[in-house]
Prior knowledge:
The chain is mainly α and 260 residues long. Helices cover 65% and strands 2% of the residues. The protein has a two-stranded antiparallel sheet.
Amino acid sequence: MLTIGQLAAYAGVTVRAVRHYHQIGLLPEPERDASGYRRYGATAVVSLIKIRTLADAGVPLSQISRMLEADASAFAEAIRTIDDHLRDEIQRLETSRRHIAQLTAGDSLALPPEVAAYLDRLRGIGASQRMVEAERDGWILVAARWPDRIVEWMPGKIAHLDDPQVVRLYRVLSEIFDGDEEDDPRLAEAADIMACLAEQAYAAGEDIPGAEADDDLPHDLIDALAVESDPRVRRLRELMRERGWSGWNRMERLPKPPPG
């Protein structure tokens, strides 16, 4: 007859695990002997080894008792069901690992790799970290609304970064937003560049991602996000209106005032 410690050691589990199996009714708890100790026989050792083997294989404790009592066909069916569940769980965990790996750079949170690559390009042309983070948050809003369109849109966005005017714009905005001057004179330069780029896009018939969709909410959210990120965006939008353009993410040409 074995003590609880000897039983646990022989079966390769902890004493705490044996007591837990007693508490949930998985392993019968013997009566105490005259000395006040519980003693375990060979049957208990065999039962505990079976329990440990099933538990180590991933069988939930709640199902082990039923499996120990099942006949061969029922046992095999239960094993197949558990195997299917484990296969699904492994796939879920592998997906989670891929997502975790993508998050190591920080930019991949809620974003596809194409946008992360675009943000890296922004850093490469001299955009500040604050500017990159503002772009990242805007793309999170876009990707949440149109996840299947990102691959289509990103090549054009990346190509725009070869334009010296776009590079200058990001550098100027980075300098402005990294500073603390409320009415920075460089806001006028940024507005001039933005108006010029808007004119070029308008003449070429270009459109911004999502502009063709009948859905104003993402654009409204991006506009609001810009102001929340830096209130000086309001002044920049005023300067854009003076140059004939309204909006922020989705620029629209204002009607020209009547002559006279």
